[in-house]
Design goal:
binds flavin-adenine dinucleotide, single chain, alpha/beta, 28% strand, eight-stranded mixed beta sheet, six-stranded mixed beta sheet, 13 helices
Amino acid sequence: MADKQHAIIAGGGIGGLAAAVALSRAGWRVSVLERARALEETGAGIQLAPNATGVLNELGLLDLVMEVATTPENLRIRRASDGLELARFPLGVIAEARWGAPYAVIHRADLQKVLLERCAADPDITVETGAVVTGFADHAQGVEVAFQQDDVKRRIPCEALIGADGLRSTIRGLMGLGKTDAPIWSGRTAWRALVPLDQAPEGVRKLETTLWLGAKCHLVHYPLREGALINVVAITEDDWRGEEAKDLWTISGEPADVTPRFSGWHGDARKLVRAAPSWKRWPLFDRQPIRRWTQGRVALLGDAAHPMLPFYAQGAAQAIEDAGALGRAFKQFPEARSALGTYERARITRAAAVVTASRRQGSIYHMSGLLALARDLTMTSLSQHMLMARLDWLYNYKGQT
Ligand SMILES: Cc1cc2nc3c(=O)[nH]c(=O)nc-3n(C[C@H](O)[C@H](O)[C@H](O)COP(=O)(O)OP(=O)(O)OC[C@H]3O[C@@H](n4cnc5c(N)ncnc54)[C@H](O)[C@@H]3O)c2cc1C
């Protein structure tokens, strides 16, 4: 039997690990090179929308994920000032029927564990940590990837290189897209906390994802690990960029930085914010959509290709969609350049649409005054069916271009 072709993936985040599984299933041997010395997802919870769980199913991962995920019964939207319910989507019941796959929430560490265990059990996948990809050269015969591990500089050949190395992607930088291709500060910061259930106020102890809309600020919370924890994310407008910080999920925030912003909010939200034992702060950036994700045998994936603001909770979902598309393209075309061209065509328009929609959603969530009033009136006047129909384009994704 001929040797399998070899792909290198720079970055072992959710996107890189999902892509490793997809490429292995397409018959490739895969090396994941991850900069961090240990793979530890510290970012608490993540929502897995039906477009993501559908692809996880295609990759044979959904059953494993659902063993450790939680399925909230509803997604509820409440007004910050008085707690009024603006909308309720019974996602726990309708997601599979309407969009063909469940809506779930999961601790990032649990999702990463599932992906890592799947990679570890696969003889065609290796995951190297402490391996920083520094460069590549795309020759006629293949790609040579340069990386550094334990102060040793190494080069290895492969037939395809996937840059899944996040917002500040080295691979994207090496593609030479120019000075205008830089991360864009959104003027917003995400604050994240985990609250043990027994310390949370009674009004939020529900099997629900709740989104609170306030002026220039919103709050999302949902249960994790069978409801033992409540994952809380507050997004505020801010002028603190934290650009110098490299390891973003680990920047601590003081409760005193967060709690005053919720002083005029309904008691349920206010008490939940006050119950948070500690916070992590995460400055929010995205980048302008680009025209090309591929260059010969090299392609970008996940946040490296299309970092987005988290207002639709879609960054990881889009990385997972990328992985699914990559697998399909490599099954169809054994030659890397043809496969990567197909992958790019399948993904680039859709991902750009989600980047743009996520920005727009941020402006809608953070409205104040009359605009907020109009938004709230629209939400309360539309039927549940009409509100859910607005999500069809996003959630009803079956790998189509
Ligand atoms: C507040 C917030 C909430 C969010 N909530 C959701 C949500 O609910 N649902 C959702 O779908 N998405 C959500 N997202 C988005 C999601 O977290 C990201 O889009 C997703 O994690 C991106 O995965 P990735 O693998 O592409 O990149 P990353 O997770 O950034 O992984 C990149 C990896 O590459 C490694 N790396 C970097 N450079 C190199 C190099 N030179 N060599 C080797 N390795 C390298 C890094 O160490 C890292 O492990 C949220 C984001 C934020 C900020």
